[in-house]
Each structure stands twice: as structure tokens, then as C-alpha cells.
Design brief:
This protein has 172 residues and is mainly alpha-helical. It has a domain of 72 residues: Zinc/RING finger domain, C3HC4 (zinc finger) (Herpes Virus-1, 2-Layer Sandwich). Helix content is 48%, strand content 9%. A three-stranded antiparallel beta sheet has the order 4-3-5. β1 and β2 form a beta hairpin. The two termini are 46 Å apart. The protein binds zinc ion (4 copies). One zinc ion (ZN) binds next to α3. Keywords: Metal-binding, Zinc, Zinc-finger.
Length: 172
């Protein structure tokens, strides 16, 4: 089974395009950062969803905790993988090389140090492919969570639709 990859897009606020910060869940099922929503409402002079323009009846909406947690994990992972690009000993140096003798990523300063004298190095792009596989394994539990979340969201969308139809039935 092919595993879906999830991207930054899944965690981006449709207003600020950043990773969600305290996303709130609107009745229309769209999620927006709380601060973005407040700003949008202020600028508009009326309360509506920035995505579908549906009127918002409430002033305060609940925080979308599942999404919030997912965003936090995603961000932590991003930061961690950013940090992993840099040499632990020479913090400003990118790990550009892979030392074949020590089987580890090294920076240009490491390469020239005594520690790796006469060692063989290969460009990191070759070594990165292997590391990607490793990362994929680590990400699987998070991916599953996201899939579940999407499923729940779809179900609640359907329920909302169902309710709408029922309400229409009562009125017409
Ligand atoms: Zn936002
Ligand atoms: Zn909406
Ligand atoms: Zn180094
Ligand atoms: Zn070495």
C-alpha cells in the first residue's frame, strides 16, 4: 500500500500561510489561527469565515486541539530536522559530507580535522537517500494520526451536511 505523504500545506493557516497557531474550528469546519481570525473580522467589520465567507454566529470558537497538537509535532520535527543539518561540534557548519570510515555525517571543518585524517568522504546527497527512509519510518505514527483526523473531519462534514438537509426539510 502506498503511504500518503503529508506536507506543510496540511498544517497551514489559509490566512497567514504559516503553520497554525492556536487554530480554532469554525462551524463550517474550516480552521483558522485565532489571531488571524480576530484580525480578519476586525478588518472586515463583520464576522465571517475567511475561506468560505459563511457568517459566524459565535464570537468565540473552540480551539481545534487535534490540529493544534499535530501542528506542534510537525513543527518540532521540522526544527529537529533543521538542527540535524548542522554539525554538532561546529554549529554554524552544514553537514555536507559523509565520512565512509566513521559512517557519519561531517562538516567541512570536521573533514580537515585530525579526527578524520585520510578518511574517505562522499557528498551528502548520496547518504541522504538512506536517511530519508529512516525518517519515513519515524513519521508513520504521526501520519496515521493525521489520517484518523482527516477521517473524523470528513465524518463531521457529512454530519453537518446531513443536518443542513434535515433543517431544509423542516422549512420547506
Ligand atoms: Zn494564521
Ligand atoms: Zn469556512
Ligand atoms: Zn564539524
Ligand atoms: Zn572520519
Amino acid at each position: 500500500m502506498a503511504s500518503k505523504s503529508f506536507s506543510e500545506e496540511d498544517f497551514s493557516c489559509p490566512v497567514c500561510y504559516n503553520i497554525y497557531k492556536d487554530p480554532v474550528l469554525l462551524t463550517c469546519t474550516h480552521s483558522i489561527c485565532n489571531t488571524c481570525l480576530q484580525k480578519f473580522w476586525k478588518a472586515k467589520g463583520s464576522r465571517e469565515c475567511p475561506v468560505c465567507r459563511r457568517r459566524c454566529s459565535k464570537e468565540i470558537y473552540p480551539v481545534n486541539l487535534v490540529l493544534k497538537n499535530l501542528c506542534e509535532s510537525f513543527q518540532q520535527r521540522e526544527e529537529k530536522s533543521q538542527r540535524e543539518l548542522f554539525c554538532r561540534m561546529h554549529r554554524s557548519e552544514l553537514l555536507k559530507l559523509f565520512c565512509e570510515d566513521d559512517q557519519q555525517l561531517v562538516c567541512l571543518v570536521c573533514r580537515d580535522s585530525k579526527l578524520h585524517k585520510n578518511h574517505n568522504f562522499s557528498p551528502v546527497s548520496e547518504a541522504v537517500l538512506e536517511r530519508k527512509e529512516e525518517l519515513k519510518i519515524k513519521l508513520e505514527p504521526l501520519q496515521k494520526k493525521l489520517d484518523n483526523f482527516k477521517q473524523v473531519k470528513t465524518t463531521s462534514d457529512e454530519t453537518a451536511q446531513h443536518i443542513r438537509v434535515r433543517v431544509m426539510d423542516c422549512f420547506f
